[in-house]
Amino acid sequence: xxxxxxxxxxxxxxxxxxxxxxxxxxxxxxxxxxxxxxxxxxxxxxxxxxxxxxxxxxxxxxxxxxxxxxxxxxxxxxxxxxxxxxxxxxxxxxxxxxxxxxxxxxxxxxxxxxxxxxxxxxxxxxxxxxxxxxxxxxxxxxxxxxxxxxxxxxxxxxxxxxxxxxxxxxxxxxxxxxxxxxxxxxxxxxxxxxxxxxxxxxxxxxxxxxxxxxxxxxxxxxxxxxxxxxxxxxxxxxxxxxxxxxxxxxxxxxxxxxxxxxxxxxxxxxxxxxxxxxxxxxxxxxxxxxxxx
Length: 293
Description:
mainly beta
């Protein structure tokens, strides 16, 4: 899928419709029909768009941008419905809570903010990281917020109170991405040290260190069923790992630049990957074919 004129920094599938959204350095989010590849809508920020997510009903898109804002969009009308302002620098990531009454965002100003969606006001402001926060997410049960930072740590926070729970240390470079599995008992993190780490959320211990990439691992995601972890790297490859054993299953090639973003379709049948470093394409992979050697 072509159409962006800048790196594709984030991807999201609609949970209800045959749609995929891509966010880019070209300041836009593009919404496409999966079956036809047809461009349906374009949503515009003033600067690079680093993050995109659908609401559970598929009616809204949540985005985070270098223009220091987080925005909520109506998918059908294409109009902005809410703007969350308060970050003092680039916002790298934004994510819905389980009940979608709150969102969490984080970025270069080193803070994590939890917002009330109805009022667009900050509920919790969470300092602690000592460098920019690259990604933030609620756990599937909504009780924990995980953050990944350039300070080489991931942190877990109590979502209800905003209080820190623990710091996960082990990466030898800044972190780029994170992903909970569907059960919420495992957290995958990736970073500039070329590795993916899988953490046990309950014990806070490393379960696996996945090695094989050369260069920064920009993106990591658990497959919806949780058996597989996929990572995208500066080395232009996507690697598919067995989540239980940590074994490398497949290496996918095709991007002509670094792989900046990843997303699975809700049914786990498709993987979307977004390019960077001169590659502005979105590629779709069938998961069934990835399982075979």
